[in-house]
Amino acid sequence: MIKLMLVEDEDIIRKGIRDLIGRVAPDVEVVYEAAHGKEALAYLERNVVDVLITDIRMREMDGLQMVEKLRTAGHEMPIVIISGYGDFVYAKKALQFGIADYLLKPIDRKDFTVALDKIRLTLNSSNRYAGGAEPHSEADGGPSSSEGRRMIRKLKAYIAENPDGDLRLQTLAEMVHLNPSYLSQLFKQEGGGNLSDYIAETRIRRACKLLETTNLKVYDIARLSGYQSPKHFMLVFKQHTGMTPGTYREQYSV
Length: 254
Fold this sequence. Notes:
Order of helices and strands: EHEHEHEHEHHHHHHHH
Low-confidence stretches: none
Mean pLDDT: 85
Number of strands: 5
CATH superfamily of the largest domain: Response regulator
Structural class: alpha/beta
């Protein structure tokens, strides 16, 4: 798991970012939340994190002051700056400290996901994980039981939020830093079934919801449910529901 610290003085915004991380990044764990720079520095004197996300304007010590002190002290973790200010001066100063990304509030989900993807590449290439750099496998014992359950819960939440995304086993395994075959075993153990079945069921639930509540064409519903081939979608849909998408819509549309 990627260990992340979140520094933001507004409780509502901090909760929103934490919830967003839970939805789009099953491999990221928010290990600590601080309300200002001084609190964050105190935590980092005793602990190590992989990534830091911080606001700029905060009481006690603002984000840029904190980042400057961290870099001076030799901390090299990727840092994402978030701010409600579009002032170029802030962005320019942030870039001087080797900031991984600079995002404006309200945070755009796509921009946030792209920023995390870039950070994953940085961590993977430099092997700088606080919790260990190598992907877990059955041979090295894998994650602990509690960590495994938490990881599978977050993975399920990610799949539910992104049924139209790239949910191939290899892709998901890379996201959570597990060997693909071990992830498959862990999901069956902690998730109560096969990963591929769970993905298919999630996608069909999305399709059913769209058939019930929209007038979208079947091929659009197939695409939004993660199926590039309408023919394959209709085959899988009938296997799961016992009827065609058209018949389902006739019976259950609102």
